[in-house]
Design goal:
The chain has two domains: about 150 residues, 3-Layer(aba) Sandwich (Rossmann fold); about 100 residues, no CATH class. About 45% of the residues lie in helices and about 15% in strands. The chain has twelve helices and nine strands. The strands form three sheets. A five-stranded parallel β-sheet has the order 2-5-8-1-9, with helices on one face. Strands 3-4 form a two-stranded antiparallel sheet. It has a two-stranded antiparallel ribbon with strand order 6-7. Strand 6 and strand 7 form a beta hairpin. It is elongated.
Length: about 260
């Protein structure tokens, strides 16, 4: 589904108060940003918990002697009150031992004596193997505890978000021309095009720095060639004002040859 469709679906789940666990699958950066926007829109706290950075005892808590028995003290980072989204980002990057402990949290909304407060949703997100992510296979018992939603990168959705986020207009114009480069993992390069890396590319471009460090040499080369044409375009506002007769379209032949 598209990011807009996912936003609509998650909003309906929140409006209905459905406390079923959700797993969002997608390319790097997509699921995380959508969940963050959903939390802001509905006035919910977002607790981003990276299970891949935890040890099994970090989630289960520590045993403490209480007379003749031991009790488990839950970790301080788990919510105790209020309303929000407990977001288990990059869930499938966590080792199987951690994923196993998370099963009870995801299905039963508890770990040991700790219980997730009623006002909290338990959602997760993860990248797919085709995204070149260093992920583990999700065990079937854990996968069966989720509602699974698969989201793909869409230029129209990215443009709507980018317009609100101040992404450079040259970046948006180029992606309108080459939408297939919005998300294109490259197994031969550490830097490759993605929604997240185009945001980084916009920051570099605003500083007058080449964007290959963010999106790789291939996409950066095409962007540079595109800028030759972009910079030679006449002023559209003058044309709309009826003053286009005196304008000269400079450098058009050179731009065409570069793009070819």
């Amino acid at each position: 589904m598209s990011p807009i469709e996912l936003e609509s679906t998650l909003s309906k789940i929140i409006a209905a108060g459905l406390k079923r666990s959700v797993m969002v699958w997608g390319a790097p950066g997509i699921g995380t940003s959508i969940v963050s926007q959903i939390a802001d829109r509905h006035g919910l706290e977002l607790l981003d918990l990276r299970l891949s950075q935890l040890a099994p005892t970090d989630l289960r808590g520590l045993p403490v002697a209480d007379g003749t028995v031991s009790r488990w003290l839950p970790p301080e980072f788990l919510p105790n009150a209020g309303k929000g989204i407990l977001f288990l980002d990059e869930l499938n990057m966590a080792p199987p031992a951690i994923q196993g402990i998370a099963q009870q949290l995801i299905l039963d909304r508890r770990v040991g004596s700790y219980v997730v407060p009623e006002g909290w949703f338990v959602w997760a997100a993860g990248n797919r193997k085709e995204d070149r992510a260093a992920v583990y296979d999700m065990p079937a018992p854990l996968a069966n505890r989720f509602l699974h939603f698969h989201v793909d990168a869409h230029y129209d959705c990215f443009r709507a978000w980018a317009a609100r986020s101040g992404i450079q207009e040259q970046i948006l114009a180029f992606l309108a021309f080459r939408p297939t480069l919005l998300n294109k993992p490259d197994p031969k390069s550490a830097a490759f095009p993605s929604c997240r890396s185009w945001e980084l590319a916009s920051e570099l471009h605003a500083l007058g720095i080449g964007i290959e460090a963010a999106v790789g040499e291939g996409a950066a080369g095409e962007f540079g060639a595109f800028l030759v044409t972009y910079d030679s375009l006449p002023d559209l506002s003058a044309i709309l004002a009826g003053k286009g007769a005196s304008l000269e379209f400079r450098g058009s032949l050179r731009a065409v040859w570069v793009l070819l």
